[in-house]
């Protein structure tokens, strides 16, 4: 399996041989009477989520810190769930913290992930199998992957994803969050609650897609990080379109089944060998079907699973993987900003002149000023927090400090609000025109006799 995994990397990403001086060598000494001595919890490499390299670890063959390399997986089995397509269950008792399986697939750069996600979406594939790996790469388990691709989402998961450095490269593993008993369904939190719903704009694949208005919008990682009700209220009231959800989720199940059967596993388990547990109801309750909203949110997004939860993310905000493709790349941030700046703008002063009433003109100009102010505040805030964002890029971590993310949300919301107010004011004055002093509803001197109504489409 490892070989295939590596070869799949070669398709898009050269496997770079680690330089000798970059290899992390721990200081453990194997002691037969202390089993944990050979790279257990206190091993320096384990503490930094880095696997020891065979031939370099002082504990030699006793080293216990090569789980990805040696594919030390727990026993698992694919089964048919009710309403969630295929799922994966524990085929033995699993201990809390235990490495269960690596999330294998084709390692592809973000541009390729973007292209594929669009293709899968166009093909009607509703299941999401693409997850972010690091700043620039994604793992696509749609066509080739390990059994980890069958693990479903749960908001009360018994597993979690963790990133490890193995031979100098980042890899993603599924780990038990708690003791898991035999026959329990495995599940982790896809962490997408902000992905497909209110933050559908984080589906930022389309460079030319002007539907989405927010750049570098930090996402919340866990319940502890929930934004204040005030912010949420502002976000949803300002951009109601972004939470509009459509489509019926149930249609996805056929595609799910087809895709499960078409899968080309990297794993050596033939698909026919998959145990199909049709008669059984949900084995453990760890995974519930998505709520209606979540299902719709899922369907609305392209097939990309949201970000991998990093160990350190507990008190931090998390960028979603979908948005990661752009957000995480240092080159992308300025590019996106210039795109944002180059977005079709309109001249509010010119629009204001089209109104007959002085009050209407003043109101539009006032809101235009407020919009400019909010935009420039957001721009200067960007410069202020840029080091933190870039640090995040370098680390390839999923998190930026909460304080930075909060500031960003606040400023972004203010900008949204200012834009909304401006647009609202124009629409209101077009729909309910105030009369000018001369009793006219349109300005006699309107340049070129433009129709103000056309600005409604701006
Ligand atoms: C990584 S796949 C998981 C395996 C998938 N169930 C299958 O049959 O191949 C992710 C997809 O499974 C479905 N899924 C995952 N968790 C779910 C849940 N709790 N309820 C409903 N569908 C779920 C969604 O379609 C999602 O895009």
TrEMBL record:
This is Histone-lysine N-methyltransferase ASHH1. PANTHER family: SET DOMAIN PROTEINS. Residues 446-458 have a biased composition (Basic and acidic residues). Residues 328-342 have a biased composition (Basic residues). Residues 317-345, 435-458 are annotated as: Disordered. The keyword NAD does not apply. GO terms for biological process: methylation. Residues 357-384 form a coiled coil. The lineage of its organism: Eukaryota, Viridiplantae, Streptophyta, Embryophyta, Tracheophyta. Gene3D superfamilies: SET domain. Keywords: Chromosome, Coiled coil, Methyltransferase, Nucleus, S-adenosyl-L-methionine, Transferase. Residues 21-72 form the AWS domain.
């Amino acid at each position: 399996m490892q070989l295939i995994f590596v070869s799949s990397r070669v398709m898009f990403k050269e496997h770079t041989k680690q330089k000798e001086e970059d290899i992390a060598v721990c200081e453990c000494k194997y002691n037969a009477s202390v089993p944990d001595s050979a790279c257990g919890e206190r091993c320096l490499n384990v503490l930094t989520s880095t696997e020891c390299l065979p031939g370099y670890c002082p504990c030699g063959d006793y080293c216990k810190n090569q789980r990805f390399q040696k594919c030390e997986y727990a026993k698992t089995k694919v089964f048919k769930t009710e309403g969630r397509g295929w799922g994966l269950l524990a085929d033995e008792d699993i201990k809390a913290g235990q490495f269960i399986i690596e999330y294998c697939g084709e390692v592809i750069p973000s541009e390729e992930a973007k292209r594929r996600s669009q293709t899968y979406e166009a093909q009607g594939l509703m299941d999401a199998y693409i997850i972010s790996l690091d700043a620039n790469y994604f793992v696509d388990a749609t066509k080739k992957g390990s059994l980890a691709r069958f693990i479903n989402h749960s908001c009360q998961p018994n597993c979690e994803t963790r990133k490890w450095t193995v031979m100098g490269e980042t890899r993603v593993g599924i780990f038990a969050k708690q003791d898991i008993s035999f026959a329990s369904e495995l599940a982790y939190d896809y962490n997408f609650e902000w992905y497909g719903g209110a933050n559908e704009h984080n589906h930022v694949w389309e460079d030319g897609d002007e539907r989405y208005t927010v750049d570098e919008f930090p996402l919340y990682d866990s319940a502890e990080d929930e934004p204040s009700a005030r912010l949420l209220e502002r976000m949803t009231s300002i951009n109601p379109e972004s939470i509009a959800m459509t489509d019926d989720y149930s249609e996805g199940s056929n595609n799910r089944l087809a895709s499960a059967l078409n899968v080309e596993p990297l794993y050596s388990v033939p698909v026919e060998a998959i145990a199909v547990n049709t008669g059984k109801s949900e084995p453990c309750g760890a995974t519930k079907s998505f709520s209606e909203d979540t299902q719709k949110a899922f369907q609305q997004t392209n097939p990309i699973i949201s970000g991998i939860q990093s160990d350190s993310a507990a008190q931090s905000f998390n960028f979603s993987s979908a948005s990661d493709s752009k957000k995480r790349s240092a080159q992308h941030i300025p590019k996106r900003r210039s795109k944002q700046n180059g977005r079709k703008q309109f001249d509010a002063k010119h629009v204001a002149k089209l109104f007959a009433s002085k009050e209407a003109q003043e109101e539009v100009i006032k809101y235009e000023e407020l919009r400019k102010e909010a935009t420039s505040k957001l721009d200067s805030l960007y410069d202020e927090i840029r080091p933190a964002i870039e640090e995040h890029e370098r680390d390839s971590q999923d998190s930026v400090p909460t304080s930075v993310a909060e500031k960003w949300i606040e400023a972004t919301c203010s900008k949204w609000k200012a834009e909304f107010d401006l647009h609202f004011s124009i629409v209101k004055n077009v729909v309910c025109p105030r009369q000018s002093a001369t009793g006219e509803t349109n300005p006699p001197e309107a340049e070129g006799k433009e129709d103000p109504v056309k600005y409604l489409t701006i």
